[in-house]
Amino acid sequence: MLEVIYGTFVIDELKKLIPDGSFASCLNESIGRELQGTIEALDEEDEKGFWGTFPVQELYELLASGWNLDHEWFQYTDGVYRDDNENEIPLSIPRSYTAVEQIAAYGLYWIRDNINACGQLPDEGYNDQGWTREGIIEHKAECLLRAYQALVYGQKLMIGNQIVSPATQEEIEKAARIAMARRAADALHNGPKGFRVKRKTIQEIWASGKYSSRDICAEQECAALEMSFSTARKALRGTPDTI
């Protein structure tokens, strides 16, 4: 019951950080999932495990440094932007979003997408996904916590830092870490082995006519391209049918 009460509250508050009719309001589910994919990739490169342990805090620092998720990643191959329901987004809506909107979308990802990822609570033992009752409750609590963290950081980004003081050694080290993460995040999307190149590659494979369906193409090629199935399948949205 508390999960429903607090979950509903934080969802409502996070939505307030994303203006109705904005680009982010059309794509908040996609933005949240894409940010999580970026964070998971950064965590694989992080020997100290900051991104896996403190994903919301690390994302906040990255966004506060001026980094933004590349909006062109959400563009279909026909040049059209479509919302989370695959409806065309009107040209009158600017193709941009703020740091506040991005971290709010990430908070919504935790409370809407991830919180039920472990399946149903079993009365005893394990559920069909291998989770115990205690493990699921702990997971839900973590998701709720991270959604609230996103809300706090989103509000902090809106307010801005009002106090300026000499940087401590810890702050200098954090700034260096975030700078490295920003370069890594940019490389994930734009580098020679980044998402853009991988997206183009799998689109070319699909266009070759090698596969009879986009699902099969994504399933068979995603591992070789070091992409998740969902990312590979997304890259094939809007591509022309093959003969």
Describe this structure in words.
The protein has 243 residues and is mainly α. It folds into two domains: 2-190, no CATH class; 192-243. 60% of the residues lie in helices and 0% in strands. It contains ten helices and no strands. It has helices spanning 2-16, 23-45, 50-53, 55-64, 99-114, 133-159, 169-190, 195-207, 214-221, 229-235. The chain is globular. The N and C termini lie far apart (53 Å). The mean pLDDT is 85.
Briefly, what is this?
This protein is mainly α.
Helix coverage percent:
55-70%
Beta-strand proportion: under 5%
Which structural class do you get from the secondary structure elements?
A: mainly alpha
C-alpha-based Rg, rounded: 19 Å
| Spans of at least 5 consecutive residues with low confidence | none
Give me the number of helical elements. Answer: 10
How is the quaternary structure best described?
Answer: single chain
CA-to-CA gap between the ends? 53 Å
- Main pleated-sheet profile: none
Q: Roughly what is the average pLDDT, rounded to an integer?
A: 85
The secondary-structure element order is HHHHHHHHHH
